[in-house]
């Protein structure tokens, strides 16, 4: 269940019913006790409410004082969470959360304070902790789940994704908390807990990557498109990491050490261990266990409010197989090549101009007059043609714009993604800017500024540490706190982009454009402009404070040496997860966008990304290589010549577009870079989409006109209150002083 903040330890357990232990009570007695707690939540005394909320938190954490092992705590936590949900605790907590959000006295008090600490957000942290435990515990499925738990899970998912809370989904309430915090109106909000709860809520209601893949398959079937050429999740999991090319300094250092007769130091020791634990060996059988799921799927990285499910350490690497096993496997590129319809049209346009002297527009069927090799080329291109769901959505949108009366209104399915987009649309730019502000404040490369937001409000104690040991613990807590914020924001943004893109391409485009305009591209590059190996291998955790270990077992004495040693893991899953998410977001923003690709070139991203290749992990390397591939043609021949190992890795790992001239750059002069024109054209398409789909007053000009004089005069017209005072002036100006040509009116009739 994760690391407990050393300044935010679990509350002391409340007394059970007189003379009884919770685990010995019958289900009816437990329900009766929870009902009494629910009634006590409605008292007006703030201290009593907080005491009851802590009792509920203790139940959600698994009544650890009555358990003998970590497994028992987790088992009772699941039992209690489903019981709490069944008794309506979540709705009651939501009302209390809304009250705390609207508590103007607490907000104004926090604004005036020179330094905000944990004490300013006690109630909020307790409420958010319980809600987080409920969302995350119910979201995760286990083999021993009871049948009614499955029903409760689906009901809770529907409840969270529907506009049931004041006409808006629960995630929108959390987005409002984020914007209030970033606008300095509520600086005491515990942002780490809010962001984690927001991420898990979106993940629960909209689905993770596995669900996304299934939804994509179903969407292609509905549109009568051919199936996907491969399962991208499985392909990435089966990839092996490439050894990054050694830098000049490393080569010189190795030569000098070899001359001294010592064993050459290996600068990538952490990479080797990372490779061992992180990547799936492609020579395993498909039914063997895979330890790379935690970075390949958002769902499998469990981080309860500070980590509410124990993640077992990865198993030791299997022994090496004999080389004979490897030789028998088929070789080839991991991805099937793809070709867009635009690529075929462009190829035929060039060929027709060359051999015939004129073009036929978008006609890709007529090949008259073209030589035989061109026929074969077109046949090969069509064999690998890929039509995406986004292309179909754009085509349908153009038809709806051109024929609004003929095609009628679009039937929009009210999915959780659609409901969330509709709720976010009015304040979308504020939400995006707030998330990027928090990401910037939590980035390890950011320098503290006096005007920046304080994200440490829910980690700093009231009294600052006075001993070295306390200072070290607080330093670890602060670093870990920032890492969790980066992890939550990166996962949330990636989920939103992927779900909006599947729901409708223009929903994805508007979020992408807000991210680009808010300087997300240079922000992510700034994040990677650090010693990425140190970040991946950071040890900002204290094993003995892992929950539930810290409350079930005896707490050993902490020393400065034990804190400095850290845990036994040679890399940090959390930071690796964040890096992969940020790279994927950058890929999403720049894919097929020429002007944004040029921003990568202008910001000199190539050396930054190339340093990230030192992390010997297949999934991370794949997305770094994708970002390098789209800009290689603009980096010049000399760069390509001196980075042939990187070029070779791109060829081996990244999907090929058959007529993409990425490795040579012969057509770069033909494409001018006009950032403003491209973004304005995209914004125009987005605004037309939003106006047609969500603006209910847009068809006013097509409304029927009432031509009956009696019915028009009989309509009741709402007039302003001050109209009666100026009625005579209005008559004089609009009626008596205007000459009326009665003859003309009679002639028209």
TrEMBL record:
Regions of compositional bias (Basic residues) in chain numbering: 259-268
Domain (Far11/STRP C-terminal) ranges: 371-727
A Pfam family matched in the record: DUF3402
InterPro entries: Far11/STRP (IPR040185), Far11/STRP_C (IPR021819), Far11/STRP_N (IPR012486)
Source species, domain of life: Eukaryota
Biased composition (Acidic residues): 286-303
Compositionally biased region (Pro residues): 312-322
Domain (Far11/STRP N-terminal): residue spans on this chain: 16-275
Family: Belongs to the STRIP family.
Name by which UniProt lists this protein: Striatin interacting protein 2
Annotated organism of origin: Esox lucius (Northern pike)
UniProt lineage: Eukaryota, Metazoa, Chordata, Craniata, Vertebrata
């Amino acid at each position: 269940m994760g690391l407990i903040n050393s300044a935010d330890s679990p509350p002391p357990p409340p007394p059970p019913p007189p003379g009884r232990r919770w685990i010995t009570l019958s289900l009816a007695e437990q329900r009766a006790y929870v009902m009494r707690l629910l009634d006590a939540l409605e008292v007006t005394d703030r201290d009593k409410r907080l005491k009851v909320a802590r009792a509920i938190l203790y139940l959600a954490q698994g009544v650890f004082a009555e358990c003998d092992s970590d497994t028992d705590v987790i088992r009772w936590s699941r039992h209690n969470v489903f019981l709490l949900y069944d008794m309506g605790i979540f709705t009651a907590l939501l009302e209390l959360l809304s009250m705390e959000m609207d508590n103007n006295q607490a907000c104004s008090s926090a604004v005036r304070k020179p330094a905000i600490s944990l004490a300013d957000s006690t109630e909020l942290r307790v409420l958010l902790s319980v809600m987080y435990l409920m969302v995350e515990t119910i979201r995760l499925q286990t083999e021993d789940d009871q049948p009614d738990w499955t029903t409760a899970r689906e009901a809770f998912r529907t409840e969270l994704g529907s506009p049931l809370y004041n006409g808006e989904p629960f995630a929108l309430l959390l987005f409002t908390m984020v914007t209030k915090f970033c606008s300095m109106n509520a600086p005491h909000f515990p942002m780490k807990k809010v962001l984690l709860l927001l991420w898990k809520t979106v993940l629960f209601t909209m689905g993770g990557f596995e669900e996304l893949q299934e939804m994509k398959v179903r969407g292609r079937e509905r549109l009568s498109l051919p199936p996907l050429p491969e399962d991208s999740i499985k392909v990435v999991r089966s990839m092996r990491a490439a050894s990054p090319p050694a830098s000049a300094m490393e080569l010189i250092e190795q030569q000098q050490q070899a001359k001294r007769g010592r064993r050459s130091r290996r600068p990538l020791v952490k990479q080797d261990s990372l490779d061992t634990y992180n990547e799936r060996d492609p020579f395993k059988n498909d039914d063997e266990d895979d330890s790379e799921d935690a970075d390949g799927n958002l769902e499998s990285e469990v981080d309860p409010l500070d980590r509410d499910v124990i993640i077992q350490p990865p198993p030791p690497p299997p022994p090496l197989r004999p080389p004979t096993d490897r030789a028998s496997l088929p070789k080839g590129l991991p991805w099937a090549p793809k070709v867009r319809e635009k690529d075929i049209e462009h190829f035929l346009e060039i060929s027709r101009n060359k051999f015939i002297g004129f073009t036929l527009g978008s006609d890709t069927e007529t090949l008259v007059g073209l030589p035989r090799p061109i026929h074969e080329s077109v046949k090969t291109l069509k064999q690998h043609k890929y039509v995406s769901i986004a292309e179909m959505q754009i085509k349908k949108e153009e038809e709806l714009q051109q024929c609004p009366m003929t095609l009628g209104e679009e039937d929009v399915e009210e999915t959780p993604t659609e409901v969330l987009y509709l709720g976010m649309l009015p304040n979308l730019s504020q939400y995006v800017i707030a998330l990027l502000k928090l990401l910037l404040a939590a980035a390890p490369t950011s320098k503290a500024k006096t005007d920046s937001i304080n994200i440490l409000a829910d980690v700093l104690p009231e009294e600052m540490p006075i001993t070295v040991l306390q200072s070290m613990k607080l330093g670890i807590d602060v670093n870990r706190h920032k890492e969790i914020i980066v992890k939550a924001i990166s996962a949330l943004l990636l989920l939103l982009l992927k779900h909006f893109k599947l729901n409708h391409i223009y929903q994805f485009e508007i979020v992408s454009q807000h991210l680009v305009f808010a300087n997300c591209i240079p922000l992510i590059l700034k994040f990677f402009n650090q010693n990425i190996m140190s970040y991946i291998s950071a040890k900002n955790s204290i094993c003995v404070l892992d929950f539930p270990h810290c409350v079930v077992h005896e707490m050993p004495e902490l020393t400065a040496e034990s804190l400095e040693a850290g845990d036994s893991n040679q890399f940090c899953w959390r930071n690796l997860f964040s890096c992969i998410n940020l790279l994927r977001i950058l890929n999403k923003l720049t894919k097929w966008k020429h002007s944004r690709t040029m921003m990568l070139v202008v910001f000199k991203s190539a050396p930054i990304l190339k340093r990230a290749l030192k992390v010997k992990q297949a999934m991370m390397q794949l997305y770094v290589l994708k970002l390098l591939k789209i800009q290689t043609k603009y980096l010049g021949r000399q760069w390509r010549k001196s980075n042939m190992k990187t070029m070779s890795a791109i060829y081996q790992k990244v999907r090929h577009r058959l007529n993409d001239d990425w490795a040579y750059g012969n057509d770069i002069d033909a494409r001018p870079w006009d950032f403003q024109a491209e973004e304005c054209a995209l914004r125009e398409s987005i605004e037309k989409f939003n106006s047609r789909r969500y603006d209910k007053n847009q068809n006013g000009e097509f409304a029927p006109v009432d031509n009956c004089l009696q019915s028009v005069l009989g309509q009741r017209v709402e007039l302003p209150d001050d109209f009666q005072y100026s009625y005579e002036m209005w008559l004089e100006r609009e009626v008596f002083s205007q000459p009326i040509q009665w003859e003309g009116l009679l002639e028209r009739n």
